Amino acid sequence: MELTWHGHSTWYVTVGDTDLLIDPFFDNPQTSMEPADVDDPDYVLLTHGHADHIGHAGEFSDATLVAVPELVSYAKEEMGFEDAVGGMGMNIGGTVEIGDAYVTMHRADHTNGVNTGYEYDVGMPGGFIISDTKPTQVSDEESTTFYHAGDTGLMTEMRDVVGPYLEPDAAALPIGDHFTMGPWQAAIAVDWLDVDYAYPMHYDTFPPIEQDPEDFRREVDGTGSDAEVVVPEADETFTLEEGY
């Protein structure tokens, strides 16, 4: 599995021969790339409808959309998307097989909505757990799993559900504070999730969410977690191997 961070909450994930683009928003200071510079993904995954998460989704409307049904309806009407997983999107708690990947949607503690002169109800915000094997109650030591938490606050489901049952090897967590978790709560999430690798995201894009990611690293160390905090450069690719 290959993971590429394009700044803010935008990630490009490759599982086998399947390419996924999560929350495309390239108007952020971390990346030098434009949407046209990005390889066309097979699927676009949207965690929620805020502008800094769907800002460039329409540039990839030939891909299949993965989002809650309300956001799928908006994207079809306003952003040119035709295809959605299952014809109507997916929802919290569901798992879908898309190409070589299995994607499970879990809730995020956040708000949602699109304001374009009138307000759309675009459903519940979420995060995605992406794996190369289907999640079951039997632990699979050979699977590789990445958790994109979306915009969220700290929630006990990370400790009680996502960590022990969906077993992510790596997690991308917002650390910007103000609108989401800050470094110290995100560090608690890392400890609860019991991941091997933790990536900070959703910071330094706007003045209210300016953060030093080294604060996140120190907070993770303070929890006693064994996770390695990886602070990526924008557009840098990481490889997660089987059996992590």
Feature tags:
244 residues; alpha/beta; Metallo-beta-lactamase, Chain A; seven-stranded mixed β-sheet; six-stranded mixed β-sheet; 15 strands; 19% helix; 25% strand; globular
Summarize the structure.
With 244 residues, the chain is an alpha/beta fold. The chain has five helices and 15 strands.
Q: Unreliable segments (pLDDT under 50, ≥5 consecutive)? A: none
**How would you state the average pLDDT, rounded?**
95
Termini distance? 11 Å
CATH topology: Metallo-beta-lactamase, Chain A
Number of domains: 1
Output the strand order for the largest sheet.
6-7-10-11-12-13-14
Query: Can you identify the CATH superfamily?
Result: Ribonuclease Z/Hydroxyacylglutathione hydrolase-like
Number of helices: 5
Helix content: 10-25%
Number of strands: 15
CATH class membership: Alpha Beta
Order of H and E elements: EEEEHEHEEEEEEHEHEHEE
Shape: globular
The CATH level-2 architecture is identified as 4-Layer Sandwich
Q: How large, in whole angstroms, is the Cα Rg?
A: 16 Å
Structural category is alpha/beta
Tell me the β content: 25-35%
Task: Give a quick account of the main beta sheet: strands, pairing sense, barrel closure.
Answer: 7 strands, mixed
Domain Metallo-beta-lactamase: 7-202
InterPro entries: Metallo-B-lactamas, RibonucZ/Hydroxyglut_hydro, UPF0173, UPF0173_UPF0282_UlaG_hydrolase
Keywords: Hydrolase
Pfam family, one: Lactamase_B_2
Describe the structure.
It is a single chain. This protein has a single domain (2-239), classed as 4-Layer Sandwich (Metallo-beta-lactamase, Chain A). It is 19% helix and 25% strand. The protein has helices spanning 51-54, 69-78, 157-166, 183-193, 213-223, and strands at residues 2-5, 11-15, 18-22, 43-45, 64-66, 95-98, 101-107, 114-115, 119-120, 126-131, 145-148, 170-174, 197-201, 228-229, 236-239. The strands form three sheets. A seven-stranded mixed sheet has the order 6-7-10-11-12-13-14. A six-stranded mixed sheet has the order 5-4-3-2-1-15, with no helix packed on it. Strand 2 and strand 3 form a beta hairpin. Helix 3 runs parallel beside helix 4.
